[in-house]
Design a protein that fits this description.
Number of helices: 9
Strand content: 15-25%
Number of strands: 8
Structural class: alpha/beta
Largest sheet: 8 strands, parallel
Distance between the termini: 21 Å
Order of helices and strands: HEHEHEHEHEHEHEHEH
Strand order of the largest sheet: 7-6-5-4-3-2-1-8
Helix content: 40-55%
Radius of gyration: 17 Å
């Protein structure tokens, strides 16, 4: 991360302006859309930037990276896991995150529930649904969402806040926006159906990133996950 804090602050304001504009178009209150600062691959200072700017939470993709980074931060923010989580890392994830957004199977639910119980905590989770039917993306098939929610609601140490999805990329760049919009609208429909049938409100819809946040907000997103528009391009992976 090479940007200064004033530059970061300006970027936050620019993203908030985009959120406000999309909310006006959708007839929504901007207060109903939270901004998750995605700090993955960035140093601990990125978390401190977010907290200093008043952002409530940060998103990380890898459990080990967050476990190493969190002790270096003095900022008071929520830590959310947005990357794919394997069952064998559930215990570590439950210990280091306030919410896990990438829950896509009953086996993972069981491991997280057990881990949270052993820690004496209630772990917040989102169910990740592959609402865009993208074979390159993780997430439960929409047809399996009712069964996944039923399994989740049976876990005493988990609190199910809502759903999450990632929009697919189209081979034709000009079609990516329309594909994202359909994906987000599909997730909202899935949520509405699940909420009506289960009686669980599932208020959180985590969908939309730097390039497609407007479409997500129009479809009902309550949280957008933004990294590049705040911190710039992620550092290239280290090579041997």
């Amino acid at each position: 991360m090479v940007i200064s804090y004033p530059e970061f602050e300006a970027r936050v304001e620019a993203v908030k302006a985009r959120i406000a504009a999309a909310c006006r178009l959708a007839g929504r209150d901007p207060a109903g859309v939270s901004l998750l600062a995605v700090t993955k691959t960035h140093p601990a200072a990125a978390v401190d930037y977010a907290a200093r700017c008043g952002l409530p939470a940060v998103g990380e993709s890898r459990v080990q990276e967050a476990a190493a980074k969190r002790p270096l931060c003095t900022a008071s923010v929520r830590w959310e896991l947005i990357g794919h989580l394997q069952s064998n890392k559930a215990k570590l994830a439950a210990a280091h995150f306030d919410r896990v957004q990438s829950v896509d199977g009953a086996k993972l639910l069981a491991h997280l529930d057990r881990a949270a119980g052993e820690l004496g905590k209630t772990l917040h989770v989102l169910l990740q649904i592959n609402a865009g039917h993208d074979p390159a993306k993780f997430g439960a098939d929409p047809a399996d969402a009712p069964g996944l929610l039923e399994a989740a609601l049976a876990c005493p140490h988990l609190r199910i806040d809502g759903l999450m999805t990632i929009a697919p990329l189209s081979p034709a760049p000009a079609e990516t926006g329309a594909l994202a919009a359909r994906t987000f609208e599909n997730l909202r429909t899935i949520r509405d159906d699940l909420a009506a049938k289960s009686g669980s409100p599932l208020p959180e819809l985590s969908m939309g990133m730097s390039d497609d946040l407007e479409a997500a907000i129009l479809a009902g997103s309550t949280q957008i996950r933004v990294g590049t528009a705040l911190y710039g391009e992620r550092p290239a992976p280290a090579t041997a």
